[in-house]
Design goal:
Length: about 325
């Protein structure tokens, strides 16, 4: 299929088609491309324009939008700027802000610049201290870590998308052997007692599923008060977790928690559905399906990046990193 062509071949073919070269001439210049592939490619990606007055905006076909979604999900396109550049390279005369609006309407939270958490001096100091404390951890150390986090998933689009129809607050965990169980947080709010209930059920079920012993693993959670409450600390102590193996991650540090990548890809996959969920129950069904599709290999790839993340934080002296 056309979509399996490398980006360089796609760009070469588009350039030659725009110059008016014949299929035979293009096949000589781009090895390994058949006439039928060129025909399909031209039909799919030749710019489609609205009829009428000159200068009207390019119409982006549903086929092209579906292609963009797939490229965003698999990481070939990463930002609104990437999408804008790509659309213009194939002849769609669309502005950058028009691209951002289009992505927003497609369900992507397209931002002009990725928003980073505010890092105060105390945050940077804590991040640097944490990274230095773990800089010598090996892959074997990190594979014993169970990462956890919460995120909000909207029925449609981002928090700022008009016409929203509810959301699900989600707790989940990730292990070296794959994603753990995930659960919805009732009413979207969590008290210390709610968190302990999640630990007693969802976390423990995850450990049991993978055959993990509490005393043998490390457990990561953010530094939220409900996570560090007396009730939560008592639960960990009473259920066989070593105190020194329960880690409270530094604040404002999503770049130090690889489960953030699962949240990111979960939301991208949900955006690929043709229509919005009919409500929170329909949304939860979609979340379950997509969460369960994450693989062990994906989780391992993200966890393997932890040594590099520590080095990046140290290099940035506790500041922002590319993660």
């Amino acid at each position: 299929m056309v979509h399996t062509l490398s980006r360089s071949k796609q760009e070469s073919i588009l350039s030659l088609l725009k110059k008016g070269l014949s299929y035979s001439e293009i096949m000589k210049r781009v090895p390994g491309v058949s006439r039928s592939t060129l025909s399909k490619y031209k039909g799919l990606y030749t710019p489609e324009r609205t009829r009428g007055h000159a200068g009207r905006k390019t119409t982006i076909s549903s086929t092209t939008k579906n292609y963009l979604k797939r490229e965003l999900v698999n990481g070939s396109l990463k930002t609104a700027k990437d999408v804008w550049s790509y659309l213009n390279s194939i002849g769609h005369k669309i502005g950058y802000f028009g691209t951002v609006k289009m992505l927003h309407n497609m369900g992507f939270n397209a931002q002009i610049k990725k928003k980073k958490p505010l890092l105060k001096k105390c945050h940077m100091e804590a991040r640097l201290k944490w990274a230095k404390a773990h800089k010598n951890w090996t892959e074997d150390d990190w594979r014993r870590m169970v990462f956890s986090d919460e995120t909000k998933v909207n029925v449609w689009g981002s928090d700022g998308f008009k016409g929203g129809a509810g959301s699900v607050m989600l707790w989940g965990c990730m292990t070296w052997d794959g994603p753990g169980y995930a659960c919805a947080i009732e009413d979207g709010t969590m008290k210390a007692s709610d968190y302990v209930h999640i630990l007693s059920t969802t976390l423990m079920d995850s450990l049991k599923y993978y055959g993990y012993e509490q005393e043998a693993i490390y457990f990561q959670q953010d530094n939220d008060p409900k996570h560090t409450s007396k009730l939560a600390r008592a639960w960990f102590k009473g259920n066989g977790f070593k105190e020194e193996h329960t880690f409270n991650w530094p604040a404002q540090s999503p770049d130090l928690n690889p489960i953030e990548h699962l949240w990111h890809h979960l939301k991208l996959r949900l955006s690929l559905y043709e229509g919005r969920a009919k409500g929170v129950h329909d949304l939860w069904s979609r979340i379950e399906k997509e969460w369960n599709s994450f693989t062990k290999e994906q989780c391992q790839a993200y966890i393997k990046s932890m040594p590099a993340r520590c080095r990046a934080v140290i290099k940035a002296k506790g500041g922002y990193t590319r993660y």
